[in-house]
UniProtKB/TrEMBL annotation:
CDD domains: Rhizobitoxine-FADS-like
Transmembrane region(s): 34-54, 60-81, 206-231
Fatty acid desaturase domain mapped to chain residues: 61-300
Protein known as: Fatty acid desaturase
GO MF annotations, alphabetized: sphingolipid delta-4 desaturase activity
Organism: Planktotalea frisia
Sorted UniProt keywords: Membrane, Transmembrane, Transmembrane helix
One GO CC annotation: membrane
Top-level division of the source organism's lineage: Bacteria
Gene Ontology BP, a term: ceramide biosynthetic process
Amino acid sequence: MTDSTLSCEVLTMTTGKRFFTSEEIRPLAERSDLWGAWLILHCWGTIALALVLFSYVPNIATFALAFIVIGSRQLGLAILMHEAAHMAMFKTRGLNEFVGEWLCGRPIMADLHEYRTYHLKHHRYTQTELDPDLRLSAPFPTTKASMQRKLIRDITGQTGFKQRSQQIMFAFKMAGEVEDGPSSQDLAQAFSGPVIGRALMANATLFILMWAFGAWWWWLAFWALPLLTWFQLVLRVRNIAEHGVVEKGDDPLRNVRTTKAGPLMRLFLAPYYVNYHLEHHLVMHVPCHRLPKMHALMLARGHADKMQIGQSYWQVLRLAASKPAMPSSA
């Protein structure tokens, strides 16, 4: 465990102890190798099932379903990489590092170590001027027209293409040639030097497997294209829900949001308990599957009125797009 990881754990333990005792935190924070293995198998198994369905019933509907489900599970891989970055998925550092890097990060062109470096800074300085993620939440609320433009850029691949281009430029030390340089979100998935080769190896493996069990174009249609489009869309919505239109400052119940999510939202938008983001910020090394229990404890102790809780992702998006449009000049 690095010094920065340890110091951030101490910080969140201090925050968490404002609401939970050490005796309550200890079992909540216990890691489980079985749970970690199940989460990885579930994510990749869901991807495989979507492809199996299309292979047996190939039509436009099953193609669209596989495309959306796989894009959502790519977000799931990012979330599980986040778990590994916090050493919360498995008991040992080695398993967290290997699985987080090769089975979660590399297939979606993300780098676990680059991600951890900036993400721990986000935890330390949440919603302050030093928060590297502040630029993701600062534009909100915005107008409906602005929100629509952002979402259209995501689903048409414009955002994804720009970010992947920035990744490559960053890898070859050319990031300065990109306007404004890569954002903190880009750096979360950035490469440094030869590390890009590992991502290419992971994707080459996926290409071979998809060709062997399907067709040569499967990787392009069911992996690269969702990664450039649907993944970017759900990633933006998740980012907005977590820190968009919340209070700035150090109040851990007001500078981050938990959003309620039903079965469909968990399938398509909020896999692996990612919607319990406020609870994650209270004690960041609690494994994701125990966050609902933390949420229930917070509600039982009467904190609901003080917490930022979105009633749905639709409600949060409406809030984030609630800025009145400027009247056009005559």
